[in-house]
């Protein structure tokens, strides 16, 4: 997408605004499928939590993707978007057994990550196919909040609990058709990933009726110019070779599955915001925009750095700015960042705004959520309307406090 396209979309749909480039999603999807082209049964399950707009789900369905879901609501979104139940993987954490059973009734692939629920579910529903999430105790990921495969993680069944796990399966005679892991996000060192994969292969030998092995995801994408990223092509060659060898050892064809979210949609996303004020203090020049961490929380929550460009003045002289929001707390998007000279009214573009950006937005400070637009075949399509004040109060129930007598 060109700057002029983005500026036109702001003119048409207002700011702040999320824009997603369908062509970039497609190219990332193809990049991953090409990397594993020698695997006969290869399946991608898009991680819905990254960006859950129904139109985005439909783009991925058209490409041939399945879905990775973590809640019954995400399952329902997938079904609403036209996915067949068998195309959906459900990998919850800390939900009720009732929710797991309700999802199972929908015909979705269940993935259980704790021994207690595995035993309870297997006792009641021994014929329902179940995948097991293993914690390989491998520390991977770019931030403690997104590293989920280490020994202190709440996710998965520890490999050290394998004897207990096998005893439950034997006692319940339940059907384990898949094995799964996810070590974290922003993984750069593919050797760490391959090491965790070896643990999963070794564990898989204990299960005789597997149909698939799911390696999660977590591939790192570039967040700024000349940034490093996961070499998925090299990773594809190495894991393919090892997977095909394991498949022969296992004695039957298996599906190799991944659950990418950020890898597919992060670089496709642009967040556009207008500069309300340029404020000079004794030590800093602030560029205050018409948004805050209510719309984009990743820089404050994870310390992530989104490349920021002044698309209203892209060739201007670069100066140092701290880009901040309008929330009544410190909500700093960037500290002392070199950006083309900013004037009030300019439009700033935040790159890599496709994953975990709108999906983590809130109404904090009673602000409305922005609109979303899909750029498809050279045209912007509105895929979510900007909220209004009526949306904020829609589900609130007012009672007649003013005419009530308050008893201390």
Description:
- The chain has 408 residues and is an alpha/beta fold.
- It is built from 12 helices and 18 strands.
- It has helices at residues 3-13, 22-35, 54-63, 72-80, 97-105, 115-124, 162-172, 190-204, 232-250, 262-265, 298-301, 389-393; strands spanning 17-21, 42-47, 66-69, 88-90, 109-112, 130-135, 157-158, 176-180, 212-214, 255-258, 269-280, 285-289, 308-310, 318-324, 332-340, 347-350, 371-376, 379-384.
- Helix 4 (72-80) links the parallel strand 3 (66-69) and strand 4.
- Belongs to the Orn/Lys/Arg decarboxylase class-II family. LysA subfamily.
- This is Diaminopimelate decarboxylase.
- It catalyses: meso-2,6-diaminopimelate + H(+) = L-lysine + CO2.
Briefly, what is this?
This protein is α/β, with parallel strands linked by helices.
